[in-house]
Amino acid sequence: MNDDEPIFKRSRRGPGPYVYNVRNPIGLALTVITLILLVIMLVLMNKRMGPFAPPSSPERPPAEIWEWSPTSTPTTGQAHPSQTP
């Protein structure tokens, strides 16, 4: 490791123009921290904990708003054309 090395170096391949330089102590620390945070996030997603936990009591809208029945009558009081004799 060399303190004279830059923290970031140009990427020869990959999506971004710069990557962490593991030859610099700060770049190595950033790489390790990034990997640790990635593992923590994956574990939280898998266990559905933290910000990935499902809501404890989901609030549902009233039944008349989200449920639809083909036998229901229109609210305007007019019969549907298919229901007229």
Architecture overview:
- With 85 residues, this protein is mainly α.
- It has a two-stranded antiparallel ribbon.
- Strand 1 and strand 2 form a beta hairpin.
- It starts with 7 loop residues before the first strand and ends in a 19-residue tail after the last helix.
Measured between the Cα atoms of the first and last residue, the distance is: 88 Å
Oligomer: single chain
Structural class: mainly alpha
Q: What's the alpha carbon Rg, rounded to whole Å? A: 29 Å
* Strand line-up in the sheet with most strands: 1-2
Main beta sheet: 2 strands, antiparallel
Count of helical stretches = 2
Percent in strands: 5-15%
Number of strand elements: 2
Q: Helix amount, in percent?
A: 25-40%
Shape: elongated
Average pLDDT level: 79
Low-confidence stretches: none
| Secondary-structure element pattern, one letter each | EEHH
Write a concise keyword list for the protein shown above.
85 residues; mainly alpha; 2 strands; 7% strand; elongated
